[in-house]
Please model this.
Amino acid sequence: MARSGKILAWVLGGLAVLIAALVVLVATFDWNRLKPRINAQVSEALNRPFAIEGDLAVSWRRPAQESGWQAWVPWPHISAEALRLGNPEWADSEHFVTLERVELNLSPLALLGKTVRIPHIVLTGPDANLERLADGRANWTFDQDDKAEDKEPSPWTLDIGTVQFDRARLRVDDQVLKADLEAEVAPLGAPIPFEQIVGEAQAERAIGEGARPQDYAFAWTAQGRYQGQPLSGEGKVGGLLALQDAGLPFPVQVDLRAGKTRFRAEGTLVSPRKLSALDLRLRLSGDSLANLHPLIGVTLPDTAAYSTGGRLTADLRDPESAEYRYRDFSGKIGDSDIHGNLAYVASKPRPKLSGELTSKQLLFRDLGPLIGADTEDEESKQPPNKALPVEEFRTERWRDMDADVRFEGKRIVRRKALPITDLSTHVQLENGRLRLDPLRLGVAGGRLDTTVALDGRQTPLDGRVRMSIRGLELKRLFPTVETMRDSLGELNGDARLSGTGNSVAALLGSADGELKLLVNDGTISRALMELAGLNVGSYIVERLFGDEEVAINCAAADIGFKNGLATPRLFVFDTENAVVNVDGSVDFKSEKMDLDIVPKSKGVRIISLRSPLYVRGTLKDPDPGVHSEGLIARGAGMVVLGATVAPVAGLLALIAPSAEQPNRCRPMLEQMRTSQAD
Model:
């Protein structure tokens, strides 16, 4: 053998012996001898006590998931038992996390690229205690010393594939969220197929999107308190959590109750790197949508009991702007149906809710809680001596989020004969300022268009309302009144009011502005007043006209508001036999009335002997009566049309042109304007 051949043989032989010795060393090395060093280094890095109290072992295995020559490179299989990670000193519990056993495979070739690649981790018996104080300190965040902040970012990256567990226990004590919960996870007797829980349609959709849903393998239960409400829940989850692979979604099932709110969902959680990281079939129910605010932080109005069902998806890639979409949901609020799509973005400086909602049949009584009115089904919060709603708006919640939501009620149903046919509005909420622009109602063949602006940034809030009433047909307003069935008369009007206060009563009690109304070709009677629920009106009409129906040529009102005091600049009824003037005031702050109703006969024989009337008392308890000795008028010519000093130009503008019949208000108003000019 040549000299060079002998040298090569010695080198190869020595290398083989070295490799064999290394293999023997690794195979026989007691890795427990490294535990003190590992424990010390991890404890120093996390600034928490860490310990592997059980056995630490390493074995070498060929990777089943690799192919080609890489399949021949053995991977270390690491296992450790009885792991403990402690809590900071301020925490109540001793340990943050404990594990009975951890097993993982490590790719040696990935280390050459400065990547710690762990395709699979198995956790046995995880037990965690999550704690957060009111000042924000949380045991799941780790304090780093000043030196750590000065160090440059590590060039190494961590790549974890899937996490598998068997049973688990979690305790939460969060003073910020006011949560005190305990949850447990345990294996099911036998796996439950994904489609058996979520349904064939959702399973096929997941498969069509390239996912491979797992079976449900574990059951979970939870109980405790959240935001001051008792909470309990149960459900099922899969057994393999894929942190990177979007094609291996994690199945979840949730049935959660918090107070009177119930949250039920089935679907999948997928990789945060995928656009849709959450895909659930969601069913939500409760006694009021407003009660969701403490649970999920979304500001919603007070409503009747509700239940909805739809699809909830989410983009969770950026926690600073996570986006949730409640798609194609339908359900009921009270006895009204509701359908639509909503999106919620957790943006800065405030989250935002946007979307479109539709109700095909909206019951008017279900609108009661929205406008602060009492409902028939709930115990009244209204003081017995108050007529105007006193329940306060929850303006403190208006600053929690922004909103841009459109709503359409295609058909409104009400038990009483109020002919509101439809409703639509655009709700905008921005930094505590609420705006309904427009708020439109279809009423009696006409339209009521309103703009409402409420500024909740101040206390009390500032409110402004503009209203336009056009073309309300009298025969539809009072369909049961025989003499109105052939009437071509209409109600038109304008209103502009502003005030301060946190309730309807407070806003009207401080209101400034004006209200103008014009009615032509109508009918008035005691029976009509009773039908409308106006007992005072019934008394007045009976005193003026008896039990007969009286045709109204025109009724005109121009009312000024100053700090809640409403004073008629003009309030007149022109009937075929008499002209009736209303004068005085209504104080909406105290709800006191001081009105005089003075008739003037157009002929001596009809009502010339009728005495003037008065209305005193309050809106809740009016006190009408007859001036026994006649009325010393506040203005000597109060009932003389020619002496009326109220402006009429604005009322003339409310007269709608009609080719069918001349408007009977025009002659009266023109006479007033002419007399005023003279």
